[in-house]
């Protein structure tokens, strides 16, 4: 829906957002794109959650609309019940990813996760429509993104489908950017790369920057964290009811603060896992739960009891990480090396401690 907003106010607020991004050290060329591409055309409304987890929609008639659209915040634009399924990503995070890509004029760029189309518009604004291909799995979103892009005057190629497959007929691509969380890098993307291609993708709670040099595909994680929504795929829920019938073992790992300290390495060692915490009436954490899309589930209590079920012994992985990382590790110490058959995240050195990622065709 086209929105009747105060265009002058929108320009002023956009200028302030751009100035803040520039003051934070972002590339002036990308900051200029933020200043010149009206984000409100891509986010005609967004969803917010109050302190009681109740959702409401905010649009141009709400006081907070324009100031929020032009703040450095991710804005939920679609949800499935309580679960956000699409958003316009946080502007500073988007610029961090675009800067890491080091795009040059004439490059072809593939984006997995069109969402609102705002990021595709930033790309098209700087480098022209012809080099930009963007894919989203949800036809409702790609339809809306085309409408937003057209309104703003951009016409990149927008395709509906699973972004994991790439789009070989429009490649080879010099740059790949992904704005949904991946469990691994699809090999199809590597096959659609031009020489010396670069990819920036969220893997777990981090952003990996990979270069493709002949047959060597490798890279390191950026120091910045990233909390992208996961790529849509089938996933089993936790089996806590089954755990109640499992005999407990014991662990020496304390659950207090564990999920914060190990959040990043856990997101690599157990791709697409989920966690939850149980609290007592005083707000003290009493147990943590962890589960993966294959149905493996573990629950550990503050009393040192552990119950596990499913194809993988998740708590065994937690115990190893606990030994390796007595304090939260720095993301930039991790890297990723990829071959057709194997993807391995490593810590500190390619032959150091590491974890296999699942291969995606
Ligand atoms: C954070 S949003 C994208 C933000 C977007 N770049 C923007 O500027 O608005 C993540 C998007 O990834 C999409 N997505 C999830 N799984 C996908 C898949 N398998 N292939 C392509 N897109 C996918 C979601 O539908 C969602 O729109």
From TrEMBL:
It comes from the Bacteria. The keyword Cytoplasm applies. Gene3D superfamilies: Vaccinia Virus protein VP39. Its main location: cytoplasm. Keywords: Cytoplasm, Methyltransferase, S-adenosyl-L-methionine, Transferase. PANTHER family: PROTEIN-L-ISOASPARTATE O-METHYLTRANSFERASE, PROTEIN-L-ISOASPARTATE(D-ASPARTATE) O-METHYLTRANSFERASE. This is Protein-L-isoaspartate O-methyltransferase. The lineage of its organism: Bacteria, Bacillati, Actinomycetota, Actinomycetes, Kitasatosporales.
């Amino acid at each position: 829906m086209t929105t009747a907003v105060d265009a002058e106010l929108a320009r002023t607020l956009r200028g302030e957002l751009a100035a803040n991004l520039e003051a934070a050290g972002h590339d002036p060329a990308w900051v200029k794109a933020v200043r010149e591409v009206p984000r409100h055309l891509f986010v005609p409304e967004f969803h917010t959650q109050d302190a009681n987890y109740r959702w409401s929609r905010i649009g141009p008639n709400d006081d907070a609309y324009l100031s929020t659209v032009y703040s450095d915040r991710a804005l939920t634009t679609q949800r499935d019940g309580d679960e956000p399924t699409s958003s316009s990503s946080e502007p500073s995070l988007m610029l961090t990813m675009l800067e890491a890509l080091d795009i040059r004029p004439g490059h072809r760029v593939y984006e997995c996760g069109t969402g609102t189309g705002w990021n595709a518009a930033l790309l098209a604004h700087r480098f022209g429509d012809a080099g930009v291909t963007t894919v989203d799995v949800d036809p409702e979103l790609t339809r809306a993104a085309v409408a937003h892009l057209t309104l703003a005057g951009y016409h990149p190629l927008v395709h509906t489908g699973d972004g994991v497959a790439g789009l070989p007929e429009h490649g080879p691509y010099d740059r790949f950017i992904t704005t949904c969380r991946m469990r691994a890098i699809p090999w199809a993307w590597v096959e659609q790369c031009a020489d010396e291609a670069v990819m920036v993708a969220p893997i777990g709670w981090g952003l990996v920057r990979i270069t493709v040099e002949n047959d060597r595909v490798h890279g390191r994680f950026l120091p910045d964290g990233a909390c992208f929504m996961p790529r849509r795929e089938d996933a089993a829920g936790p089996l806590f009811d089954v755990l109640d019938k499992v005999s407990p073992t014991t662990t020496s790992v304390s659950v207090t603060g564990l999920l914060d300290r190990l959040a990043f390495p856990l997101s690599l060692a157990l791709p697409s896992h989920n966690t939850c915490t149980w609290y007592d009436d005083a707000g003290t954490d009493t147990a943590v739960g962890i589960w993966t899309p294959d149905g493996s589930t573990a629950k550990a209590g503050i009393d040192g009891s552990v119950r596990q079920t499913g194809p993988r012994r998740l708590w065994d992985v937690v115990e190893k990480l606990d030994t390796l990382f007595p304090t939260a590790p720095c993301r930039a110490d991790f890297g990723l090396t990829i071959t057709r058959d194997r993807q391995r995240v490593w810590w500190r050195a390619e032959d150091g401690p590491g974890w296999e990622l699942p291969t995606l065709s």
